[in-house]
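Researcher: Good morning. I'm working through a list of sequences from a screen, and I'd like to move beyond sequence-only analysis. For each chain I'm collecting a predicted structure so we can compare shapes side by side. This is the next one on the list. No need for commentary yet; just the structure.
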Amino acid sequence: MQSAARMPSVSRPLGTPNVLLAEPRFSGHRLAYVRVLAEEALRRDQLVHVALPSDAVDSAEFRVHLSDLLGRVSFIEIANFGLNALEETSKRVNASRTVVTDGDGLALELAKRGSWRGAGRLSVLIMRESVQHPGPRILRWLKNGAKKAIVGRAAFLPGVDLAVLKSATWSGKSALRVAVDPVQLSCSSADVEAIRMDWGLDSSKYWFAVLGAITPRKNVPLLADSISRISRMNVGLVIAGKIEPSIRQEVDAAVQEAEGAGVNVVVVDRTLSDRELDAAVTVADCLLLAHSNEGPSGLLGKAACAGTRVLAAGARSLRVDTEGLAGLAEWVELEADAIADAMNHARASNGSGARIATGSDSFLKALLPVG
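Model: Good morning. Structure tokens for this chain:
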């Protein structure tokens, strides 16, 4: 991966649009968004540059989401991500459009300065439209008010196209441009059965699942406590995704607690490929989303696409998103007894629900508009 200071020249026909896709963080599913945008730009015969932090190319997330784009796009290393570095890089590649897929921090820089000075136009994706402060309600209200003001100011700057990320189940109105999560399932029925066999997911059990990057926001200890409170007959818990090292000990203790209560627990500690993740969502009987922070969940959209039941807890944004999945999802407070009761309710419900149609049209229209 080339550094921004030594960007190589690229042979191309005159007039070919240059697109710069920038992602300051590569954890979780962020690089999947970059891939969706890169593939669309390539489909349009545009020249694509992808700017990432210096350690991204060696990450499991890069290998899963972007490694097969090597040779088709140019990768640029930005050691210190920020507005100035992004503007300089956009000029070096003569970008007609720069897209930042986790643009919450950049929006603050834009609002403070009041201008975009890079090449071409800038698309900014706001991944967390609101914040959830753990303290008093008044502090949460103040923080959300401040963020709304920041986003609103950045949205109306010349040369800037700002959009807020919404769940695939979202339906409503927004004062800002909306980018609906580009959910799609890439797995086949054979992939689903392979996951069931490889992970030892006995079909006679009812499987709850915590999937994706396992970070503190997923509240694994709370979920283990909750599942330990219900009748454990024919119940299992799958924890699959790369576990953040800082919480590995905590997760291990939670697993031991659940197993001690008679719950069959399966742990897969690695970054899942898109196909594996989609198959895991499909094979699960109930997806658990107990989030401490606000923001759309791509996994909720995948569950809706697969017809998998969802038990959501905590973030108010999840509460809103589950309203679009009547009969397929339930939201409760982030509290062990409430989650345990909802687990019992999910088990007693009949099978999976109706699947919703999903796609990437809204996402691409908002961030990579034609013309």
